[in-house]
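In response to a reviewer's request, we include the raw inputs and outputs for one of the modeled complexes. The two entities were modeled together in a single run.
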Amino acid sequence: MSRVRVQSFSVSIDGFGAGPGQSLAHPLGVGGEGLHTWAFTTRTFQRNVLGKEGGATGVDEDFAARGFANLGAWILGRNMFAHSRGPWTDDGWRGWWGPNPPYHVPVFVLTHHARPSLEMEGGTTFHFVTDGIEAALERAKAAAGERDVRIGGGAATIRQYLAAGLVDEAHVAISPVVLGRGEPLFAGLDLATLGYRVTEHAATPHATHVVLMRG
Amino acid sequence: MSRVRVQSFSVSIDGFGAGPGQSLAHPLGVGGEGLHTWAFTTRTFQRNVLGKEGGATGVDEDFAARGFANLGAWILGRNMFAHSRGPWTDDGWRGWWGPNPPYHVPVFVLTHHARPSLEMEGGTTFHFVTDGIEAALERAKAAAGERDVRIGGGAATIRQYLAAGLVDEAHVAISPVVLGRGEPLFAGLDLATLGYRVTEHAATPHATHVVLMRG
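The model returned the following structure tokens for the whole complex.
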């Protein structure tokens, strides 16, 4: 059965999923790169995101690979797609990833501002959803069919889906950095009351991997 | 030189240092016991706290042992000493630990309500400090001499000392549990701006150990 998953979402020791001051120069927020050291090194990231050979195997890679397995659709918050804010302008922006993004399935981008879908190379089409997280999930599930829907982020988007009880499984990687400020992942969420518990826990020199599941 | 240290302070995946509803029946808050699984198993905890032989060695034990090395004084928030709240009454309470507490040095308890010092067996004396965290630290440093001062907790006490820039080194153990509610350790703290960075990171099946230092 199709599941709704968060995968490979990195947070700092102090709970932030991105640094402060996200911008074109700092897409992950200031200092946010350190969150992703564990992922950058993996074979999956090197191949799927950078198009390169090589990369590490092991526990980090295993989690990175799970993050791309059996996906039929993604959901992203707007900031994951663009650095601009407010109404869309004709600025030629087509996402952070170049002409062939690493998704290869439909991607539903949450935004308050409508715009036409954007078909990219390699099977990725960005759809822009203005009627909220539940509508986006319905469309993503319809697109995914028997496969899963991955909530890609950012932190605020994941937090909304967790709070609404719509996430079946969440893999979070706690990286050994402090950010001090930024986008908190769990702030204001009562994960225990929402029914989540830790079902997996594995640590590497780069990160601590935690899987939360409901029930 | 004498240092001010936090050691072996356990937090959940979602950042809580104790569960909600601390009471006599639940001194660690509801569900809070799971935070300390890593420590319970160690030789140091078995010997120093329970007075038993045995217990595990390894990374968890190494961190637990460091927590008791070279200490000349402790500082505790009131809830670490007692379940009662408000003015002290003559209820016979002498701490959670029985007649011979595991400190064996002066312990300064932060409280809004004065009471005479309480001398226990084995070298532990509880002093009750009503004039704030800086006064308590001055007294603890004077008592500790060349040795270190450990800020024992709880979360609110550690948070205050971190926010005031008074902690030299903090060892936090992230345990693979979610609590949902309780006492957050890092909420409202900008650790990066306060000058803390991660200087050590080691993971075991029971916890991820992180050391934060300033500068």
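As requested, we also summarize the result in words. The longest strand of chain A covers residues 4-11. The interface with chain B takes residues 13-15, 31, 172, 174, 176-181, 186-187, 189-194, 196-198, 201, 203-205, 208, 210, 212 of chain A (CB under 8 Å).
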